[in-house]
Amino acid sequence: MSALPWPVHPAAELFPLLADDELHDLADDIxxxxxxQPVWLWDDPERGTVLLDGxxxxxxxxxADVPIRTQAYRGDDPIAFSISxxxxxxxxxxxxxxxxxxxxxKLYASESKVGRPIGGVTESNKTPADLPEFPARQNESRxxxxxxxxxxxxxxxxxxxxxxxxxxxxxxxxxxxxxxDAAERQLKERAREQKRAENRALIETTPILEVAPxxxxxxxxxxxxxxxxxEGDADQFGRARPVYGTMTFAELLALPVGDHAxxxxxxxxxxxxxxxxxxxxxxxxxxxxxxxxxxWCKPHFGMGNxxxxxxxxxxxxxxxxxxxxxxxxxxxxxxxRGGGHSAKPDAFYELVEECSPGPWLEMFSRSARPGWAAWGxxx
Length: 379
Description:
Oligomer: single chain
Radius of gyration: 33 Å
Largest sheet: 7 strands, mixed
Number of helices: 11
């Protein structure tokens, strides 16, 4: 088969050619019934006459030895015309349209660089460096590209991100075998798994009882040494008064908890019923937003000036955006008391390890725990 009489416009080349058997079927149909739709041409001021739409029809006409009937495009946006004519013949899903919009954006941007028409606007031949408003033209290209194929701005942004960070997923979306939203979820999960792998390496190379200045943790558990005099009670503990040093609320607010946290991190703040209002203030001061509260249900009563306490709580806060590793855990756990005053049950640490990616840090730790860094005199 001889070459086509005209060069093909880049917009028309965004769509694949028919397979050989399909092309010959089209040629047979044209030979029997004639060419129903003309081949569209456009007189490009710089490239001469180019084929805008119908390269499969033109090739089939050559095979059938039928004259190629043409029609001239007289509009001011040949890219949009070519895309529209081709896209209407194909059933593209939202992800495929988003990726098609990316390619159209590149065409518009390329035309803009050399002053070719973009929706009826022309400029002299200038390079981007000579064209101060070129970024604005890029935005125009992006908006027009999305509009041509009825793609959403969010979808185009997703497609751009997937194309840049996961070309293999991008190819699956383009072929229609993977939805764009699913591709982005896989992309995010890959990033999380990479972060987890980096964290596992950090855990393996960091001594358990050492907090290196440059380390940043994705999960921090903290059981502050409260000065209960802040609550207005002369002696809330009696014989159960702790032997460790305590800190005032002002001192706790000033703790550099956020300095040890990753940009995306979880915080587990142990708190009693009496001190809940202070706990919310601490979360905010340390740079975390409150999300929910976990409750440790104890098998026996504890202290209390009014009701006897049988629960202890953990305020769960998030910094940045970091999903749980598991989503099937509830907000209550039952476990016996640990050994020693204010000691926390193993069930709590197991919950953190299952739900929050490491590395893990325990502040005011009272004992060493494998896999955790510890910050505190007793540890």
